[in-house]
């Protein structure tokens, strides 16, 4: 029966898990890619937190067949409700304008965080296996520092190109003095925690368990590069190469944190050069 299934194309359990993961990730990225949510910053962070952080964390319980059925059903229901909520918000102008208000964003964020923590605690998810730890800190700290230092001259050169001057800084807040710049980069710090966990934590380590490192690294790097479409052409190509490099670094380090620090440092440096030029 197994051989017959392989011959006619029926997917085994291992492939089903992987396919669902890739489909879910693709849907979330497509949903995020088509949303112009840079203003206000709080809503931008809220939306990215749900799509790149909350849903992936909950799905760790939903996708694991070892969990109790009721917990899987509950986790799946929460994910479905969040997706419906996001769809309704983006489709209805009135709801969208209400949700963007600070009090609603803070309240909703608190609710989603509490639900997620409860699901993870009840499901006893070991987040370390998904890169959610300091990992081999003695290994990645010096490599990360060297990588960032080597990138500074390249970033300075790229910041002088017309395409990059039109793109950066991405948050107008960064142009409003020292305070504005600091707030903008702190906002990006939170955003990149979501971002790097999704690509170099959730996608990389989850897929790697089923395909091996090389395939998993290529998948996450391609998805990462896709999210850069619309930015300067040089950045799109470099994001693919960079995604492969920091994907390897995260995998070897057993942590997505080095990828976070590299990405954040590059963003902050580019913004800095763009502002002073």
Number of distinct beta strands: 0
Tell me the radius of gyration.
Answer: 20 Å
Task: Please estimate the helix content.
Answer: over 70%
Number of domains: 2
Q: What's the average pLDDT?
A: 87
Give the CA-based shape: globular
Helical/strand content category: mainly alpha
Q: Characterize the biggest β-sheet.
A: none
General description of the model:
The protein has 2 domains: 125 residues, no CATH class; 152 residues, no CATH class. Helix 2 packs antiparallel against helix 3, helix 9 packs antiparallel against helix 10 and helix 9 runs antiparallel to helix 12. The N and C termini lie far apart (67 Å). The chain is an all-alpha fold and 277 residues long. The protein has 12 helices and no strands. The N terminus is likely disordered.
Provide a brief overview of the structure.
This protein is mostly helical and 277 residues long. It is built from twelve helices and no strands.
Pick out its properties.
277 residues, 12 helices, mainly alpha, single chain
Helices and strands in order, then pairings?
Layout: H1 2-8, H2 13-33, H3 41-62, H4 69-91, H5 93-99, H6 102-123, H7 137-159, H8 162-167, H9 177-211, H10 213-226, H11 233-253, H12 257-276
Helix pairs in contact: 2-3, 2-9, 3-4, 3-6, 3-9, 4-5, 7-12, 9-10, 9-11, 9-12, 10-11, 11-12
